[in-house]
Amino acid sequence: MVGHYDEGMERRVVAQAPAHLLGSVDNALRLLQTLRDTGAVSITDAAADLQVSPSTAHRLLSMLVYRGFAVQDESRIYHPGPGIVANVEAQSAHRSLLQILRPHLDSLSETTGETCNLLVRVGTTTRFLASAEGSDRLRIGSRAGEILPARLTSGGQVLLADLSPQVLAGLYTSNAARTSGEFLDAEAFARFRRQLDHIRKVGSALNRERTERGVSALGMPVRGPEGPMVAAISVSVPSPRDEALGSERIRSALSSACQAGAADLAGG
């Protein structure tokens, strides 16, 4: 059974790419997102992620260094510079998660043929740390670097379901929630709590076009060595064939990837 949350919730559509996209600007911004979320990137990885030559990736990173948004260490790895406000502890944790879970993300994408994503929760948002694009011609593109409301994404919902009622209330019924635009009134919060209870029981959540039209996703959690959830992995498909997300093939593969990732995080 797949958990989902549709009633009473608005859809939030991801901004569409402008008609006249400036490729170099877009690539520079994507590198900033990578530095912000992972804390480190090499020229080789940057070139692969952006699908550009290493020389182009080097020029982009050099410009970020020049403007103070990146610094290069003695190993020629780039890290966030003073121009990026970042939490060093979170960077280290995200980098460790990526190193350990990325192979499972890639393997899951190869097994299912679909685009798979690694997400973490930061407050009321989810950050896509990495994506492995599927092989299907009608696949979903990479979401790496995107930040979306946690209560609308499949991975965000399974991570929220692990929180206590007190923490949830602080996130969604406080004055800070009013300021951030995530405030839920008593009725909406009670409905949201019921949905999270259901997601906790079934161990997964489904997002049908709540964050982007034409895209559906199934998310499951990855637990850390201490027990609490530390990340989520989701499988994204075009909505016309979202019935695939309920198939035993995809659900079993996703569950296995999450369990294998948790075992690696625990050192087992």
Automatic annotation (TrEMBL):
GO terms for biological process: negative regulation of DNA-templated transcription. Keywords: DNA-binding, Transcription, Transcription regulation. Pfam families: HTH_IclR (PF09339), IclR_C (PF01614). This is Transcriptional regulator, IclR family. PANTHER family: HELIX-TURN-HELIX TRANSCRIPTIONAL REGULATOR, ICLR FAMILY (PTHR30136), HTH-TYPE TRANSCRIPTIONAL REPRESSOR ALLR (PTHR30136:SF24). The keyword Magnesium does not apply. One of its GO terms (molecular function) is DNA-binding transcription factor activity. Residues 22-82 form the HTH iclR-type domain. The keyword Transcription applies. It comes from Brevibacterium aurantiacum. Residues 76-268 form the IclR-ED domain.
